[in-house]
């Protein structure tokens, strides 16, 4: 097979490992920077060009599109779809899972348990917004943030009020979410392929840090999932339309929760 890997950096560990795995199975794989692709959009003979080359004959595309280039990256992926090339995750599912509000609403509609979550842009009644998620302690996030950036734990209602007002001053969309104290600064990342969880790790934040992101100095260890956790991860991935992804879960007293604000990794 001839495989295109859409990634901005061919030296990234994930890109290198995909190339190695493809070569080991006898496939031809190539890393393409989607921001350097340009497209001819026509019903007669659609095409994608890269550094002057017409990208013809690819059997499959593996998208590794960073959040910062979601708009253009998914447009390139959509062009491969127009050309009837198999895409591991399609453009619609990636766009859907990158939209924190839309993904939360869709998961809730389908009955997936989430932390109690409120979205706002310029709330007229901050007290009511705080009360909607059960009061402090609570987590306040910038909707556009990632990797733990723009995430604040407010331990009192006064602190929550101050943070919300500060974020409002940035003219930003914000998310206010209940704090799952029993998770103790940890979460679970499940690697889902099709209808199976093939691996899972527990991510634990540093001492005194409620964020479990490895980028924030957290640690990771293998973990055994419960049947309900496995089923929740697989169902969440299917709802998003993702064939291969990472699904994050929080262990709460009421069962596994999907923190949909940042719960999916492609």
What does this entry look like structurally?
- The protein has about 270 residues and is an alpha+beta fold.
- The chain has 3 domains: about 1-90, Rossmann fold (3-Layer(aba) Sandwich); about 115-180, Dna Ligase, domain 1, CATH 3.30.1490.20; about 180-265, D-amino Acid Aminotransferase, Chain A, domain 1 (2-Layer Sandwich), CATH 3.30.470.
- Helix content is about 30%, strand content about 30%.
- It has 7 helices and 17 strands.
- Strands 12, 13, 14, 15, 16 and 17 form a 6-stranded antiparallel beta sheet that branches. The protein has a 4-stranded parallel beta sheet with strand order 2-1-6-7, with helices on both faces. Strands 8-11-9-10 form a 4-stranded antiparallel beta sheet, with helices on one face.
- Strand 1 (about 1-5), helix 1 and strand 2 form a beta-alpha-beta unit.
- Helix 2 (about 70-80) runs antiparallel to helix 3 (about 90-100).
- The longest helix is centred in the C-terminal third of the chain and has 14 residues, at about 225-240.
- The two termini are about 20 Å apart.
- The model has no long low-confidence stretch (mean pLDDT about 90).
Order of helices and strands: EHEEEEEHEHHEHEEHEEEEHEEE
- List unreliable stretches of 5+ residues: none
Query: Looking at the chains present, what oligomeric state does this protein adopt?
Result: single chain
Q: What share of the residues lie within helices?
A: 25-40%
- The CATH class of the largest domain turns out to be Alpha Beta
| Mean pLDDT level | 89
- Give me the secondary-structure category: alpha+beta
> What distance separates the N and C termini?
22 Å
The CATH topology of the largest domain comes to: Rossmann fold
The proportion of residues in beta strands is 25-35%
Shape: globular
Whole-number count of domains? 3
Please tally the helical runs, counting DSSP H or I stretches of 4 or more residues.
7
């Amino acid at each position: 097979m001839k495989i295109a890997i859409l990634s901005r950096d061919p030296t990234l560990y994930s890109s290198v490992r995909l190339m190695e795995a493809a070569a080991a199975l006898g496939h031809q794989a190539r890393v393409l920077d989607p921001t350097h692709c340009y497209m001819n959009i026509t019903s007669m003979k659609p095409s994608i060009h890269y550094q002057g080359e017409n990208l013809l004959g690819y059997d499959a595309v593996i998208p590794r599109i960073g959040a910062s280039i979601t708009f253009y990256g998914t447009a390139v992926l959509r062009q491969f779809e127009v050309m009837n090339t198999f895409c591991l995750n399609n453009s619609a599912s990636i766009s859907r899972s990158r939209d924190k509000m839309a993904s939360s609403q869709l998961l809730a509609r389908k009955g997936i348990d989430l932390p109690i979550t409120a979205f706002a842009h310029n709330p007229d009644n901050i007290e009511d917004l705080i009360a909607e998620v059960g009061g402090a302690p609570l987590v306040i996030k910038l909707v556009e943030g990632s990797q733990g950036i723009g995430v604040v734990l407010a331990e009192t209602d006064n602190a929550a009020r101050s943070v919300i007002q500060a974020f409002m001053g940035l003219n930003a969309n914000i998310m206010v979410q209940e704090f799952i104290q029993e998770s103790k600064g940890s979460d679970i990342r499940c690697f889902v392929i099709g209808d199976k969880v093939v691996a899972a790790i527990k991510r634990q934040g540093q001492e005194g840090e409620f964020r479990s992101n490895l980028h924030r100095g957290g640690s990771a260890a293998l973990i055994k999932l419960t049947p309900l956790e496995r089923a929740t991860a697989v169902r969440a991935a299917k709802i998003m339309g993702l064939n291969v992804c990472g699904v994050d879960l929080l262990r709460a007293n009421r069962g596994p929760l999907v923190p949909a604000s940042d719960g999916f990794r492609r």
